[in-house]
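Chapter summary example.
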Amino acid sequence: MNIGKISFYNNYGMNYKRNMDNRTVFGSRKEKLVTDGIKLGASALSASALFLMAKNDVKNPEKIIDEYYANENSRVINAKFNLNRFSEQEKYEINHRIDDINLYPKAFRAIINAKNEDNTYKFDFQDSMTLFDDAGEEIDKYPEIFKQIINAKDKDGETRFNRDECAALMGQADLLKAYPKAFEAVLSITELNAEDCRNFITDTGAAIQEFPFILDEALQSVPKDSDSYGKQLIHTLKRLFLERTDKQQWELKKQREIAEIAARSAQEEKAQAKANARTKKAEAKQAVMEEWNKKTGWIDAKSFFEKVDNSVSECKPLILESGEIMPDKMKYKIDHYILLKSKKAKAVINARYENLQPMFSEKECCEIINELDLYKEPSELKYLKTVRDGKPFFNSEQCKELLQIEPFTRKFIMEKFMNPPRECSADEIVEIAKNTLLTGDFWLSFRDLVELKDENGNYKYTVQECIEKSKQEINQ
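The structure predicted for these 476 residues follows.
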């Protein structure tokens, strides 16, 4: 009986009195042997030492050790695995390796529960632990492959692979999974030993998976009673494969195909994701626009153009969505500008704030297009589109005023006075823009005045005061 050193109670001597209710009970003389050993000062007592102490005094000292293991095992609650078939010492060793076992619980359960056809267990304790150490991770990952390997039979109907051979084959589980046709052949060709099986998978798995028919050719050309059957079969498979494709070129081709497929797949996924995002964004934007269109009675440029054209060609009144009728003189002028400057007219109709609210009503569009030459670059709306606190910063009338300013001047004034240090209101910005049209001298005077500050760091003049003072200076 080979018994290694086993941990008894931690700090047993220090806690002996308060742990009396939980002590290992061996009965009278046996108990005395244990407690005598503890009194010697050992914090960890080996089962072998306990055995030697009891050997001269007890007829069956092994029972003391069994009771010791049983008592230690009673302290561990292990509901994950059924360990009834193992001895108390084996259970003890399993419990002391439970952290490792819990990493691959499916594998451990599959190993200890594996049975032969006569309902006996395939692996004893030692084989179970060895197999778990050698192939636990692979068995946990591929339990079905493990089941097929341990249940495989040789040509005489006996178990085909022993413990070490099972572990070695499970070491190739990734390949067995990748090449199911080759794995199926390994299980069916009983003349292959374990080493042949491993070489069969690594050397010919990919070839058989791509060209399954070469396996039938090889099986027909290699006699099963020949010496080194496995080696000859593998050699024949390689030859048949190389006859159909150059190995190096095949490998390069497969690598390229894999890379191309991966790149194409990634590109397609990325493109699809972008397309989906664009579609969702467009749908959301369209929903908001539709809501604003209903609120404001807005119609698209194409429909507006058709309405004007029909009104002119059929000599009918130009009736707006609101029911208002536009003067004929304005109608014909609008038609004139639509024909000559349709792109510019369309930009006026399509002008929207950042919240997608139409910038101009249908009537305002008519008024602007009626005098389209007065308006400068209506498509340049970067700052006019601004929305603050949920409302457009500039109203439609202010937009009309600003669109009559040269684009460069308009952009410069809005950049300067819509941002710190001196942020102005929409009305103030419109007034500044309108007055810059007077003379260049106005701007030079206004620029100096608008930046003046008092001793407290506050601006010395309001924007309107700066405008008035600048006017006075240029009129003197």
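To summarize the output: Residues 7 and 44 are 5 Å apart (CA to CA).
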